[in-house]
Amino acid sequence: MAREKLNAVKVRQSPAGKYGDGGGLWLVKRDKDTGSWMLRMSVHGRLRHMGLGSIAEVSLAEARAAAQKWRAVLREGRDPIQERERQRRDAARNLHLLADVARDAYEARQAGLKGDGKAGRWFSPLEIHVLPKLGKTPVAEIDQIAIRDVLRVIWKAKSATAEKALQRLGIVMKHAAALGYPVDLQAVDKAKALLGAQGHEVQNIPSLPWRDVPAFYASVGDGSVTHLALRLLILTGLRSAPIRFMRADHIEGDVLTVPAELMKAQRGKAMPFRVPLTPEMLAVIEEAKRHARDGFLFPSVKKGVISDATMARLMERREMEARPHGFRSSLRVWLAERGCPRDIAEMILAHSVMGKVEASYQRSDLLDIRRSWLDRWARFVVTGKDEASVEAPAGAEVIPMQAVAHG
Fold first, then answer.
1. What residues does the Tyr recombinase domain cover (predicted)?
2. Where in the chain is the domain with CATH 3.30.160.390?
3. Which of 75, 121, 130 is nearest to 101 (CA)?
4. For residue 266, is pLDDT > 60?
C-alpha cells in the first residue's frame, strides 16, 4: 500500500508509471496525458485487478468512492468484479424497451397466425394504441397505472380494440418474463380492474340486405381481381382470408379445402374446412386463374395477395355502409328465411355448433347437403330469383345436432 496519497495535480502531471493512493487504489499512467484507475485486491486468496475507468472520465474523488464501494462488497464475501458484471446484466435487462419486446413476441407467434400474420391484425392494436406512448419505456417499468392511462381513452369508445390491445399486451409481458426480464405479470389484470366495466354493446359489421345482394353481385363483374374476389366471397360465405390466400392447389374437382391456418380457430384450434363448389363458383375461379401469380388466385398489384382492405375500399368508394364480411350475415339471414336447418346453416358458415360428445357422433361434414343450399344461393345471387325449399340429396339423412344422443 502506498504511503503518500494522490492529489489532482499529481494525477494530471505525473509521467508514465504506477502511483498508489492507498487501500489498493492505483493510478496507472501510460504517458503524462493518459491513464486509468485500478483497484487491486485479494478475492478468495486470489489477486484481482479491477478497472475503474480512465482519468479523462473519472476524477480522483470518484475513483476513491468507487474503490470504497467495491471494498465494501469484498468485505461481504462477494467478488466485486463478478458483482459488477451482474449489475451490468441487470441494468441491460431493465433497459429492454416495450417496443422491442413486443416485436419479438409478435415474431415468435407469427408462424401460428393466419397468413403468417402478414395482414398485421395481431400487432396493430399494440402498434396503434400502446406503443406510441409506451414503446420507449423499459418493459420492467410497465405497471398497471401506465397501462390504464394509455388504454383509458379507448376503453369505452373502442372497446373491442381496447380488449385486443390489453390481451396482446398480456402476451408481450409473459414473453418478457420468459426472456428473464423482471416484469409484473399481474400488471395487465390489475390495469383491467382499474379500467372498470366497459358497458358496451357489440357492434355487428354492417351487412347488405340479402334482397340487395344480386344487384351488387352484378355490379362487380369487370373480371378484375377485386371483383372476382368479392364474387367468390359472396357465393361461398367464407371469410376474407380463405378467399385472399386461395391457391389453385386448394381445389380438387368441385371441392375447395381451406387449410387450417386460414380458418378462424374454434375452441382454440383451427381445422381445415371443405367447401362444395357450385358451377357459378367454379366459373369465377376459372376466370381468376388468368390473374394467378405464385400460386395465388387473387394476387395484389405489387406482391403477395390483395389486402383485407381492398374489397372494403371498393364498397367505401360507393358510399356503402355494408362491408365484405357482412355478406356472411346476408347469407345467414337468407338461409334462415328459406328454412335451412340451423345446424346446416352454421356449418355452411364454418361455425362450430357441436360439443365434444356431439362431434364424436357427427363424423360427416354434410358436404352434399351444404352444396344444395349453396347452389340455390348462387342461383339467387346470379338471377335474383328464388326457388322452392331445398330437398336433401337422395340417401342423405339430416340429423339435428340437438337430437344426437349424449352417450
1. 203-374
2. 8-94
3. 130
4. no
Model-level pTM?
0.51
State the chain's mean pLDDT as an integer: 85
Assign domain 8-94 one CATH number from 3.40.50.2300, 3.40.50.700, 3.30.160.390, 3.40.50.12780: 3.30.160.390
CA-based nearest residue to 147, from 109, 121, 183, 95: 183
Q: For residue 171, give the nearest of 129, 132, 126 by alpha carbon.
A: 126
Q: Whole-angstrom Cα distance, residue 131 to residue 257?
A: 38
d(CA 253, CA 281): 12
CATH of 210-403, one of 1.10.940.10, 3.40.50.300, 1.10.443.10, 2.40.33.20: 1.10.443.10
Give start-end residues of each CATH 1.10.443.10 domain in the chain: 210-403
pLDDT digits (tens, 9 = 90+) for 216-261: 999 999 999 999 999 999 999 999 999 999 999 999 999 999 998 8
The enclosing H or E element of 29 equals strand 25-29
98-195 in CATH: which number?
A: 1.10.150
pLDDT tens-place string over residues 98-143: 999 999 998 888 766 655 555 567 888 999 999 999 999 989 889 9
Give the DSSP H or E segment for 135.
none
3-state secondary structure 190-234: HHHHHHCCCCCCCCCCCCCCHHHHHHHHHHCCCCCHHHHHHHHHH
List all residues 6 or more positions away from 219 whose beta carbon is below 8 Å from its beta carbon: none
Eight-class DSSP state of 126? H
> Is 354 a residue whose pLDDT tops 80?
no
Q: Is the dihedral of CA 75, 78, 79, 84 positive or negative?
A: negative
CATH 1.10.150 residue ranges for the chain: 98-195
Give the residue from 225, 259, 218 showing the smallest Cα distance to 242: 259
* pLDDT at site 403: 31
Name the one residue in this structure whose C-alpha cell is 346446416.
344
